[in-house]
Amino acid sequence: MLRSKSLSSKVADVVLISILVIVALTCILPLWYTLSLSLSSKTAAAAGAVALWPVDFNFDSYKQLLQDGQFFKSFWISIQRVVLGAGLNFIIVPLMAYPLSKTVKDFKGRNVLMWTLIFTMLFNGGLIPLYLTIKGYGLMNSIWALVLVGGAQTIVFNIILTINFFRNLPKSLEEAALVDGAGPWYILFKLYIPLSIPVLATISLFSIVYHWNEFLYGLIFMTREEFYPLQTYIQQLVVSVDPSTMTEDQYKRMSELSNRTLDAAKIFIAMIPVLLVYPFLQKYFIHGITLGSVKE
Amino acid sequence: MKVNKSVWGFLAIIFILLLVACSNEETATDKEETDNSTTKSTEPADPFGKYEETITIAIGQEVDPSDTSLQDGDTPLDNQYTRHVMENLNIEVEHAFTASPSNYDQKVSLAIASNDLPDAMVVGPVELRQMVEADQIADLTEVYENYASPAIKEIIDSSNGVALDSVTFDGKIMALPNSQAGADGVHNLWIRQDWLDKLGLEPPETIEELKEVAKAFVEQDPDGNGADDTIGLAGPDTSNKLYANFIESTNNLYGFDGIFSALHAYPGYWLEGDDGSPVYGSILPETKEALEVLREMYSEGLIDPEMGVREDSGESIISGNTGMFFGPFWMPYGPLTDAVKTNPDANWQSYALPLDSNGEYTPHLSTTTTQFVVVRKDYEHPEAAMKILNNLLANESEFDPSIGGPGYYPLRLVYAPADEMEVTTVALREVLAGTKQPEDFYDMPAYKLLKSDVDTIFDVKLEPYDNMAIQYWDIENHLGQWTRAYSALVGTAPLVDTEINGVKSLIYSQTKTMEDRWVNLKKLEDETFLKIIMGTEPLDSFDQFVEDWKQQGGEQITNEVAEAVQ
Fold first, then answer.
1. Which of B188-192, B451-455, B556-560 has the lowest mean pLDDT?
2. Which residues of B touch A43 (CB under 8 A)?
3. Phi-psi region of B506 (alpha: psi -120 to 50; beta: other; left: phi over 0)
């Protein structure tokens, strides 16, 4: 550290650091609040008395959570979905990005294919047609509805990211391999993929987070709660219902059942898997984003 | 190459998982294709007749994910209710879809839009209209006439034709209506009696007195904690409205319904104008006056300053910061239970106040029909839905809610006499006063909970039996019964003791143009009124709102309403 800092740069440091602290807090406080809520008593939570520290500290919510079979069923469905979705993503993206990273001279249909992909990114048929399509394929209540629909909607972005990364790899590497008699498959698997770990880690992370957090398709394509992925299961618990559309009898039931501390515990547990994945992929992540975007 | 190996290993794992998932898929796909046995029922019309061969009905069902009442491995599809339907009617219930209360409407909309309908389901008035227009549902006129049980017909007739009117399109009955107690359409003034007593105040009879009480609650530290943290009158939160309207005419919590109606303003209602033709209450001068009153109250800090942005206004009631709010009789089922648990002195009492300038209580009244069972057009056994409902009403008292909440009954609609709560209140008072015995009320099966109410009242009410203040109740003994009894003896009491000169809306359902325009008109209305009350727009922007409202389809809608009520 240089000691000869001018006053103005010190002021700048203070300002920047406080801004960063505030931004960091806006990210952390909601998590912290959810944790406090889940460790508080039901009455305190209903009265809005919980702020940064739990009121009437207890583990009741977590004990109750352990008995909730559907929570763990949904948790397992989400894990399957993430593994399948991120796995498919990991396989398909390099296979598509490699040919598409070539110029039109090497790959004639490249532009047509590229624009087709981009078209699907910009326009889509809407929810009802999507629903009818999935129903037509017989994929209702199947995990593949979640894996394929979600995958199809995010994959184009991942492909574009990977194409840019591939294009930044030194051309001479590929030429050298060609001279040595390597074919395209060999070049892709032995050269490009090992060199592209940062970007592949990045797109996997995107895909994992997307599949973990996405809840709408679970709601649309699953007709029963037992097939819901975790975030859909949680969404239906925490979305508030307009009491005026309910009959008195429904409201009574709902108010007897409402349990904010338990919901908070579920939300907190649901965050943990993604929190665990992040640290392992983060170093590649930062690497991958910048490498993919800057031309050397 | 180490990296290389691990990549291949990863790929191999993925492929194995893909294979595993593929083989599992078969069990996961839905069993949509059910063996709909096409045996036509040839038996004569018997409301409780059992089918000779098992028929199936695939329904849309609301399932509350936080309802953990099912016991012994029962599921939403296999429980005391579905087994009862199977045994008594030989109807096998299947689920075309289930959804939580918050998502049920979305699932219904999806089913309607994609024309992928269950055999029968419960819908609201808006969806009913859509389905009639899309020609998706069966004409149930004959089903209702031949198969509705006498008990259901009696309850439906008790609504003076409102229930049947709301399902009749071109003279045909297109759905089966519910009928619920009328009490939850009246929004009482709930008030902290202990605060009033402490400050030496009386319950406010007029709007002026209401303002004074609110001012005292805000400024004189009624909770005695030395902090300036009290709210005079609660305001609506994000899931409630400023006032109940003709489409959602019941159960508006923390709104200003009482203030509007005391000033004879009925925003959101269709009223008869001076010339006898319908007018929309929100565009009348009375509404402007009421908004002016609310605007003043808000600027003086008498209304919760955070109204409209709070997620749940019940929070400040539970924590003991709020002194008054408007809400239906059943608020003990809402925040009041937790409020009393938090602070045993919180003596919430309910009044039919404030009164209008003539000293009369003039609230708006609700419709008693809000939900409908519809049957898919080509379903072979449309009468099955009616039979399921007959069976519910006839046997509801036999079921044990502790091993599966009533919401698990397939196609459940509420059937309650319109005066259910009032009758309960009177009965409880007579039992408490000793003028009648609990046994005197045993023979009233339409009033489903009355027997248990009169039997358990002495478990929760302490002497003196004619004083309803909170310290004369035993809450710990039986919380569930306390909630019910307090709702009757405190919440419903004003409706029994007060002469109610209520105002009804001319219609409680949508017309054709409303389908396209109402959402926007409603939004315009809500935003303008909220801004006027909160002072971000001048009061005179009300006049601009009236102009805009008429131009953007309001005029046309008014004409349609005029046609509909003729």
1. B451-455
2. 318, 338, 341-342
3. alpha
Kindly report the nearest CA distance between residue A254 and chain B, in angstroms.
Answer: 8
What tens digit of pLDDT does each residue of B338-397 get? Answer: 899 889 999 999 999 999 999 999 999 988 888 899 999 999 999 999 999 999 888 877
Rounded mean pLDDT, B111-140: 91
Does B100 share its domain with B222?
A: no
- Whether A165 contacts A196, CB under 8 Å: yes
Q: Count how many residues are written for chain B.
A: 566
Query: Does residue B525 fall inside a structural domain?
Result: no
Cβ contact B414–A225 (<8 Å): no
* CB spacing of A47 vs B318 below 8 angstroms: yes
* Segment A225-260, tens digit of pLDDT: 888 998 888 888 776 666 555 555 666 666 656 677
Query: Do B126 and B210 share a domain, yes or no?
Result: no
Query: Is B230 inside a domain boundary?
Result: yes
Both B284 and B208 in one domain: the answer is yes
Q: Which residues contact A25 (CB under 8 A, 6 or more apart)?
A: none
CA distance A141 to chain B (A): 5
- Whether B173 and B234 map to the same domain: the answer is no
Residue-wise pLDDT for B266-279, tens only, equals 999 999 998 889 99
Question: Lowest-confidence range among A91-100, A274-283, B134-143, B249-258?
Answer: A274-283
pLDDT surpassing 70 at residue B315? yes
**Confidence class for position B40, pLDDT limits 50, 70, 90:** very low
Angle at B561 between CA B555 and CA B565, to 5 degrees: 150
For residues B519 and B507, what is the distance between their CA atoms, to the nearest angstrom?
17
Does residue B161 carry a pLDDT above 60?
yes
Is residue B237 in a domain?
A: yes
CATH, residue B91: 3.40.190.10
Which of B5, B7, B245 has the highest number of chain A CBs within 10 A, making it the mutation to test binding with A?
B7
- Of B175, B363, B375, B337, whose CA–CA distance to B252 is shortest? B363
Number of domains in chain B: 3
Record: contact A131-B10, CB cut-off 8 A: no
Q: Identify the domain containing residue B209 by its residue range.
A: 187-364+503-509
| E runs forming strands in B230-305 | 231-233, 270-272, 278-280
Q: Say whether both B134 and B174 belong to one domain.
A: yes
The CATH classification number of A68-293 equals: 1.10.3720.10
Residues of chain B in contact with residue A94, where contact means CB-CB under 8 angstroms, are: none
